[in-house]
Amino acid sequence: MMIQITENPTLLSFEGKLVCSDGLMKAGKWCDIGTAGAWKPIKIQKKSVRGTISNRDERSDTEHNDHAKFIKNISNPNPQTVDNAALPFDADTLKVSFTLRVLGNLAKPSACNMPKYQQKLEDIIRGYVEEHHFAELAKRYAINIANGRFLWRNRVCAEAVKVHVKVDGKELPFDAYKIGMRDFDLPKNQDDADRLKKLTQVIQDGLTDTTGEFFSFMEVDAFVKLGNGQTVFPSQEMVMEKADKGGKSKYLYQVHDGNPENSIAALHSQKIGNALRTIDDWHWQADEIGAIAVEPYGSVTNRGKAYRPKSKGAFYTLLDNWMQKDQKPDEKEQHYIMAVLIRGGVFSDQGKKDKK
Hints:
Layout: E1 12-14, E2 18-20, E3 23-28, E4 40-41, E5 45-51, H1 61-65, H2 67-75, E6 78-84, E7 93-103, E8 111-112, H3 115-132, H4 135-146, E9 160-167, E10 170-175, H5 190-207, E11 215-225, E12 248-250, E13 254-255, E14 264-267, H6 269-276, E15 278-280, H7 286-289, E16 292-293, E17 299-300, E18 305-306, H8 315-325, H9 331-343, E19 345-346, H10 350-355
Parallel strand pairs: 6-12
Antiparallel strand pairs: 1-8, 1-19, 2-7, 3-4, 3-7, 3-14, 5-6, 7-11, 9-10, 9-11, 13-14, 15-16, 17-18
Helix pairs in contact: 4-5
């Protein structure tokens, strides 16, 4: 008998199932891709520059009428101190390395304070797994690894990009430029397609585990041929407070082993994870903008837009209809719902909690 659900839990959360490390950035030569010891850490360097004033001028028309004063103001230098990262002049290639664990047992939430709701949600997730086996989602995650999407700006206009994935002592090499960024179809080259199928199976094995004890693990190395001395782009730290006068206005992310002298430029694990879950091309504007990262409301912060509002396939609308009205979404939206749960997060009904 189908369990009847009329309300949502005030406590519901899922742990993320794609657990990636930070991405460490090193420099070397393209010809040394196969030589592990040939790569040196990229250091963050402070740079002071004398810029110009180019921001929008908010002063009144009256102030602009004083032409001499206006010219004087905009002619003043705009000194800035920023972090910078670049390849040495004897290195033409960036290497980005990270590790990824793929966890399973998705049907078991981390926390849920409504047993009937949890039971029905478990039944729905298990039904999806029996029908689809995470095959489509695993393929899309694999493609985003193979095409180097996680490199972000470092991938743009590079001369060449190769991605090597190590699983169980075996290496799966990919030419990232041969793997599409606009769709999730397997490449036409049979060797590339076969390697992607192997990587897909590894991810699928991790996601379909129901014991909570097995996981898939892989090491990913990406090589980007940029040219000697070229700028590279680690993650930028969010500065919550305004910089002091003379202080840095841009901070780049770096990690070290406790000794700042051993620091190395890096990509945030969150930034890599965002790239891996950029698989949602099921939203209503996908034909126009392509895939976006899986989010409950389809939020894309750098565009200031949400592509899945409540009226356009928001996660909560689809899930509530499935749970409370037994309205099973179409296959694409089922993939989307499961991808949000794989992403993880807190999905509690806070509105109901606040009313109590």
